Amino acid sequence: MRGLIAALVLALLWLVLAFHLNGQPIFALLFLVFGAALGVVFTRRQLMSHRYIFPAVAGMALFVIFPLLYTIGISFSNYSSSNLLSEERVRSQLLSRTYQEESATFGFQLYRTDQGVRLYLEREGRPSESGMNAGQDAAGAEAALRGVTHFVTGPISLEGDERRHVAVQPAEDEPAGEPLAMRDVIASRAALQNLVLTTHDGLELHMAGLRHFAPMLERYEIRANGSLYDRRDDRLLIADRETGFFVVDDGERITPGWPVAVGLDNYARIFLDPHIRGPFLQIFVWTFVFAGLTVVFTLMVGFALASLLQWDQLRGKALYRTLLILPYAVPAFISILIFKGMFNQHFGEVNLILDALFGIRPDWFTDPWLARSMLLIVNTWLGYPYMLLLCMGLTQSIPRDLYEASAVDGGGPLTNLFQITLPLILKPLTPLLIACFAFNFNNFVLIALLTGGNPDILGASTPAGTTDLLVSYTYRIAFQDAGQDFGLAAAIATLIFVLVAGLALLNLRLAKVRV
């Protein structure tokens, strides 16, 4: 047992080191705490009773609490596809960028000679002064580009995909041999792109087109104060740690950036930016309406069917019960995709029937209200079997003596319904209805597979649709928007958590469970 615990602790320490070396201190700290807790709980006799619940507690901390805290932390940052890397990695990436010195390009031609294929270059332009100061030795570049107009390589191979450095020498005449046609150049393009031609003074030439090679010069130069000088555009880049970008004098931001803390800015954008507030409030209201109407409709259908199945004179109850519960056994995503085909505006069975009977073809996927109605219809079909099972179980638990006493007093079906059945089943059913409401509040699968959130809300600055729920709206902001604004998505996800947590507490209170 101790050997197994030691192996787990060592594995966790290896994860801590791996995350630390990859620049992920939060995850390194997480596994460090997890490993320390594992070692303490399973080595101290005083904590022996906690060993049995440690896996459950650790799983909850690792898969529930930590993601929640991490999401809340992201909501206070500008984390996005534009602010994804650390400042050090952004600086390193910018320093690795190069640019082509277009004023000093060389046309080239491939020749097949007796020794093999050779590359012949002839200068086409004059090097600019900015290029002479851009990372290469000025005197060497002057000698390579201005002192010599023609270069030639030795025999080269046009096979393989590895990067190769090939020396070029000044030449007076073209090599003796047969020039290759353009189709041969195109066929050898991959090999030519991997060639780095180095002159006798150390200047490197790279392929810049099907007929050109040119110097590729380092674009940025780091200064002593940490700023970056842009050699190509002759401007200075200053690190703005409030926005997480390198900026120039005119305020232009250079991407990529790095994440920085922005406080409550993301939450303020939700309620103060009109291009976000309008769609958010519309989706917020629709989310509550969708979840509430789903509960009401599924309860009505389930209760009505359960009442019919309790009818004493109904024959074949077992068969009807099986058929009515059968949709519950079919995976939801299969049913949703089937309904998506049935509601197709041009070839779906629903529109074909409506067209044959009434001559209409509703635009289920383009009209906002029809799309919402379609969602409620489909979700009612998916959810009524659950309510049917609940109502059948609760109605069967009602003593038959109550109905017999009601019959003696002259009570009819409506009296039994409103005076006996509903009061007795609603109280135990209420916590389950709240749980059903919370589930449909985050019913991402239905939206993603059926409508994708469409049709879109016009004027929104984020991807927002009239059938989006808050959870699908958050997903679209984080993963389908061009900017992938994870900070804003995390802020909305935090609000969703607060709402669902409130529903859970209400559920516990109604179920009379003390926390």
| Number of separate structural domains | 3
Gap between N and C termini, in Å? 35 Å
What is the 3D form?
Answer: elongated
Would you identify the regions where 5 or more consecutive residues have pLDDT less than 50? 127-144
Global mean pLDDT? 88
Content-based structural category: alpha+beta
Radius of gyration based on Cα positions:
35 Å
Number of discrete helical segments: 19
Supply the CATH class of the largest domain.
Answer: Mainly Alpha
Look at the structure and name the CATH superfamily of the largest domain: MetI-like
Strand content: 5-15%
Number of strands: 14
- CATH architecture verdict of the largest domain: Orthogonal Bundle
Largest sheet: 7 strands, mixed, barrel
> Major sheet: order of its strands?
2-3-4-5-7-8-9
CATH topology of the largest domain: MetI-like fold
Helix content: 40-55%
Task: Give your account of this protein's structure.
With 515 residues, the protein is an alpha+beta fold. The relative contact order is 0.08. The strands form 2 sheets. The chain has a 7-stranded mixed barrel with strand order 2-3-4-5-7-8-9. Strands 10-11-12-13-14 form a 5-stranded antiparallel sheet, with no helix packed on it. The longest helix is centred in the middle third of the chain and has 36 residues, at 274-309. Helix 9 (265-272) packs across helix 10 (274-309) and helix 18 runs antiparallel to helix 19. The protein contains 19 helices and 14 strands.
